[in-house]
Specification:
three-stranded antiparallel β-sheet; oxidoreductase; rSAM; nine-stranded mixed β-sheet; 2 domains; single chain; TIM Barrel; globular; alpha/beta; Arc Repressor Mutant, subunit A
Length: 453
């Protein structure tokens, strides 16, 4: 079976499975009142994680699929920071006790577009309302072209110990096409500055499938990325979804590499990272140095998947803060209002800003565990998973009948109860996971997810 044959057979549109059910299946039936009850009933044992969303950027990158907008004025940023601190206090009050926190992740947008004193004030508010564990991971996403000295000092004061740098591609033609000019020298200087304030854990994001990309240009980027000595590298496929993100329509589809070219690009980057950089592949699209906690979690079967992608975070609850932020609790998922006006109106009226979510039923919990095992461990024992949930394995085994084709193509090993995704099947792991997605199977409208390859 050639790569071209595999692509032709499996390159459909499937979810990325950062949750199950996935976000398109969230409904307004889960609102603020439901969320308040879930918060008040969080388990006593174990820490939680926090995600803080900043929906602003200094520039619009045409490839971006995040919930963000370009804001240059300082006043709306300060207003948003105050609102975020009000939400932190409101959530803590709703919980009714001081929760321990093991992970804090700042995402966006670009969190560092906030004024430095706003960044430190928000972090102080987090520490005032929650108990950060001594070894808590405090991570932030950074645009390397806009990290001023005062913001760098703020990161040190905040106690940031992990930073994720967006790279995407260093090729000038690609950068011009996506509206993101960023030199290797700027990125290297940013990495050096971060290490200078004690942030030794660095992540890089690369993207394949961008306009005007070629194997040769992306290979140069991959080798330049090695020189930055990051602990982790994420290699995402560009998701061209102009029906969801209108600005992506400014990228001519004729400039995008086809499915075969995307597949070749992904294989090439993996080859450079593994053979030349010594990185260990993690799940679908992450790579980590052998001594990194993510590599160890993957080897020890303790890897997890959340809305931030692959993670070492094992906390039973993730509390999302900010406009559009998604939270994951034992009872289900919640999402804040996506727009800043709606989010701010709720918080300033002392109401939780929850606009939609999904309450988990027993079948959801079982299938979520199966899908996460496939996505993280590249294997799952269906009988064992069903037994752990006290469930009848028959529905899972019925879904697994479709594995016959995957097995014939060398993408999985399947003995009737246990699935193991092969190395050849790693790029198609989302397709394997999708076999157990009951919501996808029931979907009657045309799929609106990103392409699988």
């Amino acid at each position: 079976m050639t790569d071209a044959d595999l692509i032709a057979r499996y390159d459909g549109r499937v979810p990325r499975y950062t949750s199950y059910p996935t976000a398109p299946h969230f409904t307004p039936e889960v609102g603020a009142q439901t969320y308040a009850g879930w918060l008040a009933n969080l388990p006593e044992a174990g820490p939680v994680s926090l995600y803080l969303h900043v929906p602003f950027c200094d520039r619009l990158c045409l490839y971006c699929g995040c919930n963000t907008s370009v804001v240059h004025l300082e006043r709306p940023k300060r207003i948003y920071a105050r609102t975020l601190m009000r939400e932190i206090a409101l959530v803590a009050r709703t919980v009714g006790r001081r929760l321990q926190v093991s992970h804090v992740h700042w995402g966006g947008g670009t969190p560092t577009v906030l004024p430095p004193d706003c960044l430190t004030d928000i972090m102080e508010s987090v520490r005032g309302h929650f108990e950060l564990l001594p070894d808590a991971e405090i991570a932030i996403e950074i645009d390397p072209t806009s990290l001023s000295p005062d913001r760098l000092a703020a990161l040190a004061q905040m106690g940031i110990n992990r930073a994720s740098l967006g790279v995407q591609d260093f090729d000038q033609a690609v950068q011009d096409a996506i509206g993101r000019q960023q030199s290797f020298e700027e990125t290297a200087a940013c990495a050096q500055a971060l290490r200078g304030i004690g942030i030794t854990s660095l992540n890089l994001d690369l993207i394949y499938g961008l306009p005007h990309q070629s194997e040769e240009s992306l290979e140069r980027t991959a080798r330049q990325a090695l020189a930055l000595r990051a602990d982790r590298v994420a290699v995402f496929g560009y998701a061209h979804v102009p029906w969801m993100k209108k600005h992506q329509s400014l990228i001519p589809e004729a400039s995008l590499p086809g499915a075969r070219a995307r597949f070749a690009q992904a294989k090439m980057v993996r080859r450079v990272l593994e053979r030349e950089g010594g990185y260990i592949p993690v799940g679908l699209d992450h790579f980590a140095r052998p001594g990194d906690a993510m590599a160890q979690a993957a080897l020890g079967r303790q890897l997890h998947r959340s809305f931030q992608g692959y993670t070492t975070d094992a906390a039973p609850a993730l509390i999302g803060l900010g406009a559009s932020a998604i939270g994951s609790l034992p009872q289900g998922y919640v999402q804040n209002a996506s727009g800043v006006p709606g989010y701010s109106a709720a918080i300033n009226e002392d109401r939780l800003a929850t606009s939609r979510g999904a309450a988990l039923n027993p079948d959801d919990r079982l299938r979520r565990a199966v899908i996460e095992s496939i996505m993280c461990e590249l294997e799952v024992d269906l009988l064992a998973q069903a037994g752990a949930f006290g469930a009848d394995p028959a529905p899972l085994l019925a879904d697994a009948r479709a594995l016959a084709g995957f097995k014939a193509d060398g993408l999985v090993n399947w003995d009737g109860t246990r699935i193991e995704v092969t190395e050849a099947g790693r790029p198609f792991v989302r397709n394997v996971a999708a076999l157990f997605d009951q919501y996808l199977a029931q979907q009657t409208s045309s799929p609106r997810h990103a392409v699988a390859v």
